[in-house]
Specification:
Elements (H helix, E strand, L loop, with lengths): L6 E9 L2 E8 L4 E6 L1 H15 L12
Antiparallel strand pairs: 1-2, 2-3
Length: 63
Amino acid sequence: MAQRRTMAGIAAEETEDGFVIHIVDDAAEVFEIEASRENVELMVANLSAVLGGGSGEDSHAED
């Protein structure tokens, strides 16, 4: 089982193909992912739903 970490920070930058997202954990390790605009918009919608008391579990990116 993977070790569970706590998010300590996040940053993002726009690229030609979309975005690069940097997630920093409590051990100061950086997880970097590339995401399309569609996937970033999906993340924002999911987080907004969860913050509003809903669930984002039924929303997944399509390949």
